[in-house]
């Protein structure tokens, strides 16, 4: 066998190997926080529509903690988180990819009659001292307050602005739910309820929830970008250190691409600079 | 002092530590695994409990929803609300109370559309207030709801259903179930665990009674925040707790479940105990096995140490001091010491080799050079540039070949190298070699036990030069000694021949008529002559001893008989001197031994003679005893002692007694005579025979000489007893011997003298006739062949004279003839002779003749001459039996020789024969040349006779054949004179080759 034939055979093998690698399709599941759940679902649908090789799905919320747990255990390549990573989490080899900033807003059920809430009023409601809408200038009726645990990204975003909110012990009448869908479900069910959520998450509601201005500032991306609106959370994707591959890399590239960025803005999210 | 553990112990401890560590790790691992398994099991258990609790809560949700829905379907209640009346209130009360009682719920309320509570079944008295719970407002707007109510009275699950009158909502009914202690207890019973419902602030909302532990707020908060179950174990109390985030309808709580894990941990404890037990057993077995393995493993180390210490001790004799019980350190010490001592020993060896005057080269078993010394390179300087350790010996041989054979061809060098390699490989050769600078070197090559070859090169150049000088000196000395010996021999002959004449003349003179002075002078001459004769014999005897020319005879004999015979001889002499000779023999008188009887006799007679000489009017004791056997010596040892009461010897003189020419006193010689050689010869003889002599003496009190002498066992060869042969003539017979041959004269005279006869010698017939006419003789021995007048003529004239004289009985005349021709006997008898005696004359024949004609009291035993040894070649032209050149037994058999009474006689005869025969041979040549036939016949006859007489049998036989031929006129070989001389020369050669031709006995003491 001549050297020429050996080189030909070697080239054929390498070509076959390369083609087989590029032809590999993946199903990517991105579990985790409820905050980016809706918008990521939209991004996944757009991604799936744009290409057919990979399929990305965004399951119901398991929380940021669930995302970290699944990524660390290797159950999935990408997780979704409603906050940036803590130092100890980065130390464990996790890498955070920001999607953008989403305004956090106080929101009422569909029967809400007020359009603005002050920081003090918000604290009073969740402390359990303000229980009737009339105290907020609305139609009288009991305020059904729906809160979240301290680890919730939206609550933490409020806590950064309203310091007392961070360590606030909610009143007994305040319901405390663990997941965004649960909060949205209660907001949908109780029209006189009051809760807080990131703005993009409200798109999952079945009823017409009412976003409240805080201290007179509307929770718009413009106000956020202008620095006027103080409540926001940053969500993103998390993966293990090292290069991504396959569907995860393709999906991240899509999200950070023009279509992804546009879709984020459509949902009121201030996209993160793609250079990050 | 620092403690040093033994390697064995150290390794055992280390091994035990490692095994213990591994066992501990194994134990910990298995315990952890077991514990993990137990924990997992317990967690599974609490998970099951958690699921059970959640399921039960959901079941409560359904229950209250079902009750609420059932109540909402009651039209009577709706109508009562739609149409408020007292009856309606009664209906409401009855219906709710009944349902409240049946449904086993905790809350049951009815509100109107204004959310005002119309009736509370659990608290009928309180009514008219506004319902504040979640879902009431939604219910009056027509929506059903299920919510958790977390109020001051605790947490309750509330199901609220709108009441419709037709399609119009007229109010709502709420049914609730409190998650209170009772319900928690019921749940606890259902799931088999202690439970507590915790609020978001960590407060216990409801719990079972047996829940004893405090709430772990941290765990609870973690469960809340992470929304996952958090497990906590209380090993001390064997409990497992789980903080389970639960959603009660729509509100978050944490349910803590506590499970008793005592049984699981009991199993864990048992398993741990078993594991610990197994670990301990394995640890113990491993340690024991480890120690055993270490012992086995360290055994070669100990053996190595022992070998090293032994070798080190062998090198210097000092033991190696080991440090502590550390085996490895001890081995290191031993090897260090061994290395140091070997280096020291090698250094010492190198220094010793360097100090050697000999060249040294050592090759190993493979023929490679391992060491050499400085001297080697000095001897072979051409090897210095190339020699090195490991160089094959062939390399040296190659260079040496070029050096030794510079001009040789390659083939010659190769042959030289192969020969050298062969010699070296043999390892057992010694050879001389000459170095390039001309030095002579002796190379000795020996194989070492390990197969190597050690070569030592000894420079003998100086030795060779000395040897050459010594050889030259020795040759000169030998020449001088030969000259001295020849001179001494010649002088002894020259002295003894006239001395014999002096003695003979003195004896003859004593038989003539002498006056008293003349007789005294003649006796003095005879005595001095005998002394001189004896001294001469002693000197020659001693010379022969010192030259190692004495040969000892090995013959069977009876030593005590010999002693008795000697004593009988000396007893008369002693008695004549007024001294008593006594014998004390403490041994078997028939004892037979093998030895030299003549030397034995010589020794004893010497001592007895000395005793007799130095003892005047005293006593002499000759004693003999057999000595006990000596260790390992099977020979027979006899001690012979001669004790006298004579003059004695002073101690200082005693010490010089056995030195030559040393008598006890210088005056002794003058007073007692003697040469002073007797004891020296005695001592030499005894030492030659393996014995030793001692002497004790005190001046004036006598002397004791004794000797111890070993004898071999008898071999069956008996020597003739000279004393038995000895013939003693009755009376003193006077015998005239007419014989011209000096040898025959001496022999016959001696024989007769030995027999006690008085002998008168004459040399021819005329002298015989004259003697007979002037002296009385009992017997005449008449040689037939004599010059001037032969024996036949003389006999005839004697017979004629007798007849003319008319005297007494005719004189007995016995012919002496060589018996050469048949008819001689008849001729002799015809001439008037009475008898016939053939030559050579022996004592037996002589005794027989004397017995016949004079009468004797003892007949001698027949003497059987010893078998001839060296046969002479038969001369060409003469046929006949082969006769020995020399038969020493002929002279040895003479009684005076055999009994030692004339020890020098045999040699004297031989000396005399040699000198006279040379003259006779010259005369024969002259007669032959001048054609004087008669003279030639007579000379040949005389030669035949005299040579037969001394045992020169070959020469005698040749002379006999020649005589016979001459007499018969037969043809004789032309070279017969040369044959005769050759025969004589052969005789001389044999006599010279034999240091002691006739086993010459010692002369008795003077």
Describe the structure.
The complex is a heterodimer of chains A (276) and B (1006). Chain A starts with a helix and ends in a 5-residue tail after the last strand. The longest helix of chain A has 20 residues, at 3-22. In chain A, 39% of the residues lie in helices and 20% in strands. Chain A has 11 helices and 11 strands. Chain A has helices at 3-22, 37-50, 63-73, 87-91, 119-127, 153-161, 163-166, 180-189, 221-226, 246-255, 258-266, and strands at residues 27-29, 55-57, 79-81, 94-108, 116-117, 144-148, 175-177, 193-198, 210-214, 232-240, 270-271. In chain A, helix 2 links the parallel strand 1 and strand 2. Chain A is an alpha/beta fold. Chain A is elongated, with a radius of gyration of 22 Å. Mean pLDDT of chain A is 87; it is low at 15-23. In chain A, the strands form 2 sheets. In chain A, strands 3, 4, 5, 6, 7, 8, 9, 10 and 11 form a 9-stranded mixed β-sheet that branches. By secondary structure, chain B is α+β, with helices and mostly antiparallel strands. Chain B contains 30 helices and 27 strands. In chain B, strands 2-1-5-4-3 form a 5-stranded antiparallel β-sheet. Chain B has a 5-stranded antiparallel β-sheet with strand order 7-6-10-9-8, with helices on both faces. In chain B, a hairpin with a 5-residue loop joins strand 11 and strand 12 (369-372). In chain B, helix 27 (905-930) runs antiparallel to helix 28. The longest helix of chain B has 66 residues, at 7-72. The two termini of chain B are 93 Å apart. The A-B interface holds A 63, 65-66, 69, 141-142, 144, 149-151, 169-170, 172-173, 175-179, 182, 185-186, 189-192 and B 132, 134-135, 137-138, 143, 145, 147-148, 150-152, 199-201, 224-228, 245, 247, 250-252.
């Amino acid at each position: 066998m001549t050297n020429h034939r050996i080189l030909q055979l070697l080239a054929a093998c390498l070509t076959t190997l390369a083609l087989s690698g590029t032809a590999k399709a993946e199903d990517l599941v991105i579990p985790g926080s409820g905050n980016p759940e809706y918008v990521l679902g939209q991004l996944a649908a757009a991604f799936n529509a744009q290409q057919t090789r990979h399929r990305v799905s965004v399951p119901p919320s398991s929380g940021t903690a669930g995302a970290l747990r699944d990524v660390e255990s290797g159950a999935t390549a990408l997780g979704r988180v409603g906050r940036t990573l803590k130092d100890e989490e980065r130390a464990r080899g996790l890498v955070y990819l920001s999607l953008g900033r989403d305004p956090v807003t106080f929101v009422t059920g569909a029967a809400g009659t007020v359009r603005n809430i002050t920081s003090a009023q918000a604290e009073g409601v969740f402390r359990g001292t303000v229980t009737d809408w009339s105290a907020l200038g609305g139609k009288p009726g009991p305020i059904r307050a729906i809160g979240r645990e301290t680890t919730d990204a939206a609550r933490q975003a409020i806590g950064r602005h309203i310091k007392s909110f961070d360590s606030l012990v909610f009143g007994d009448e305040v319901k405390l739910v663990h997941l965004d869908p649960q909060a949205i479900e209660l907001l949908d069910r109780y029209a006189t309820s009051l809760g807080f959520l990131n703005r993009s998450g409200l798109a999952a509601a079945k009823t017409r929830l009412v976003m409240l201005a805080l201290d007179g500032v509307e929770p718009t991306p413009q106000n956020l970008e202008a620095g006027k609106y103080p409540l926001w959370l940053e969500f993103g994707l998390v993966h293990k250190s090292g290069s991504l591959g396959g569907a995860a890399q393709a999906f991240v590239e899509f999200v950070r691409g023009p279509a992804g960025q546009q879709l984020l803005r459509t949902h009121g999210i201030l996209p993160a600079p793609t250079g990050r | 002092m620092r403690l040093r553990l033994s390697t064995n112990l150290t390794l055992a401890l280390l091994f035990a530590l490692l095994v213990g560590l591994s066992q501990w790790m194994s134990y910990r691992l298995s315990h952890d695994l077991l514990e993990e398994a137990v924990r997992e099991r317990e967690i599974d258990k609490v998970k099951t409990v958690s699921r059970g609790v959640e399921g039960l809560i959901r079941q409560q949700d359904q229950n209250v929803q079902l009750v609420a829905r059932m109540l909402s379907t009651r039209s009577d209640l709706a109508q009562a609300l739609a149409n408020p009346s007292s009856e309606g209130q009664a209906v409401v009360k009855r219906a709710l109370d009944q349902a409240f009682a049946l449904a086993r719920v905790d809350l049951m309320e009815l509100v109107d559309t204004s959310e005002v509570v119309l009736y509370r079944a659990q608290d009928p008295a309180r009514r008219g207030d506004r319902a504040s719970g979640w879902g009431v407002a939604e219910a009056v707007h027509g929506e059903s709801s299920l919510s958790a109510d977390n109020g001051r009275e605790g947490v309750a699950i509330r199901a609220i259903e709108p009441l419709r009158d037709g399609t119009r909502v007229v109010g709502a009914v709420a049914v609730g179930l409190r998650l209170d202690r009772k319900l928690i207890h019921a749940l606890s019973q259902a799931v088999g665990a202690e439970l507590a419902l915790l609020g978001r602030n960590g407060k216990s909302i409801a719990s079972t009674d047996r829940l004893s532990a405090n709430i772990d707020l941290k765990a609870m908060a973690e469960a809340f925040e992470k929304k996952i179950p958090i497990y906590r174990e209380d090993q001390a109390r064997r409990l497992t707790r789980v903080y389970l985030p639960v959603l009660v309808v729509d509100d978050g709580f944490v349910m803590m479940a506590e499970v008793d894990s005592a049984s699981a941990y009991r199993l864990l404890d048992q398993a741990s105990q078993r594991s610990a037990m197994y670990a301990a057993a394995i640890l113990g077995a491993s340690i024991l096995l480890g120690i055993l393995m270490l012992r086995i493993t360290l055994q070669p180390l100990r053996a190595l140490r022992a070998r090293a210490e032994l070798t080190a001790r062998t090198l210097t004799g000092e033991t190696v001091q080991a440090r502590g019980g550390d085996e490895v350190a001890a081995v290191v010490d031993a090897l260090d010491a061994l290395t140091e001592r070997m280096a020291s020993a090698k250094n010492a060896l190198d220094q010793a080799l360097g100090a050697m005057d000999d060249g040294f080269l050592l090759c190993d078993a493979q023929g490679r050079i391992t060491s050499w010394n400085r001297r080697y390179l000095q001897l072979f300087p051409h090897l210095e540039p190339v020699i090195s350790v490991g160089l094959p010996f062939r390399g040296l041989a190659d260079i040496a070949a070029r050096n030794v054979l510079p001009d040789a061809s390659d083939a010659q060098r190769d042959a030289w190298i192969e020969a050298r390699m062969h010699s070296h490989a043999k390892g057992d050769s010694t050879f001389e070699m000459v170095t390039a600078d001309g030095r002579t070197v002796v190379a000795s090559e020996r194989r070492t036990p390990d197969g190597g070859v050690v070569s030592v090169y000894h420079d003998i150049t100086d030795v060779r030069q000395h040897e050459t000088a010594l050889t030259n000196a020795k040759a000169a000395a030998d020449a001088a000694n030969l000259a001295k010996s020849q001179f001494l021999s010649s002088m002894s002959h020259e002295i003894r021949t006239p001395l014999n004449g002096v003695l003979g003349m003195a004896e003859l003179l004593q038989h003539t008529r002498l006056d008293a002075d003349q007789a005294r002078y003649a006796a003095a001459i005879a005595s001095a002559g005998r002394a001189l004769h004896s001294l001469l014999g002693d000197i020659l005897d001693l010379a022969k001893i010192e030259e190692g020319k004495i040969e000892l005879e090995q013959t069977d004999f009876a030593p005590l008989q010999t002693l008795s015979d000697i004593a009988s001889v000396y007893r008369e002499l002693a008695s004549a001197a007024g001294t008593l000779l006594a014998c004390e023999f403490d041994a078997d008188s028939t004892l037979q031994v093998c030895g030299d009887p003549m030397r034995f006799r010589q020794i004893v007679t010497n001592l007895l003679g000395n005793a007799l000489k130095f003892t005047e009017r005293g006593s002499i004791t000759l004693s003999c005893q057999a000595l006990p056997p000596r260790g390992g010596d099977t020979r027979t040892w006899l001690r012979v002692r001669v004790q006298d009461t004579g003059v004695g010897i002073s101690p200082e003189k005693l010490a010089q007694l056995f030195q030559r020419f040393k008598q006890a006193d210088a005056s002794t010689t003058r007073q007692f005579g003697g040469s002073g050689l007797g004891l020296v010869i005695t001592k030499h003889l005894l030492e030659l025979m393996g014995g030793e002599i001692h002497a004790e003496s005190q001046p004036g009190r006598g002397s004791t000489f004794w000797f111890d002498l070993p004898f071999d066992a008898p071999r069956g060869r008996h020597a003739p007893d000279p004393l038995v042969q000895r013939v003693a003539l009755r009376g003193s017979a006077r015998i005239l011997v007419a014989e011209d041959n000096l040898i025959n004269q001496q022999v016959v005279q001696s024989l007769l003298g030995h027999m006690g006869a008085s002998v008168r010698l004459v040399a021819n017939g005329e002298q015989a006739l004259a003697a007979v006419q002037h002296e009385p003789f009992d017997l005449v021995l008449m040689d037939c062949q004599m010059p001037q007048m032969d024996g036949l003529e003389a006999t005839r004239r004697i017979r004629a004279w007798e007849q003319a004289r008319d005297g007494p009985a005719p004189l007995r005349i016995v012919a002496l003839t060589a018996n050469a021709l048949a008819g001689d006997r008849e001729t002799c008898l015809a001439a008037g002779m009475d008898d016939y005696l053939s030559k050579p004359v022996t004592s037996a024949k002589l005794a027989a003749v004397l017995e016949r004609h004079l009468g004797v009291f003892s007949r001698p035993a027949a003497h059987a001459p010893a078998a001839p040894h060296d046969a002479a070649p038969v001369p060409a032209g003469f046929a006949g039996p082969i006769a020995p050149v020399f038969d020493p037994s002929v002279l040895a058999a003479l009684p005076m020789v055999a009994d030692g009474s004339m020890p020098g006689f045999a040699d004297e005869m031989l000396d005399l024969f040699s000198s006279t025969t040379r003259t006779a041979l010259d005369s024969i040549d002259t007669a032959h040349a001048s054609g004087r036939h008669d003279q030639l016949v007579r000379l040949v006859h005389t030669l035949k006779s005299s040579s037969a007489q001394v045992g020169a049998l070959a020469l005698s036989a040749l002379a006999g054949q020649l005589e016979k031929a001459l007499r018969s006129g037969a043809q004789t070989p032309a070279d017969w004179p040369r044959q005769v001389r050759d025969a004589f020369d052969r005789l001389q050669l044999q006599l010279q080759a034999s240091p002691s031709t006739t086993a010459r006995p010692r002369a008795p003491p003077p």
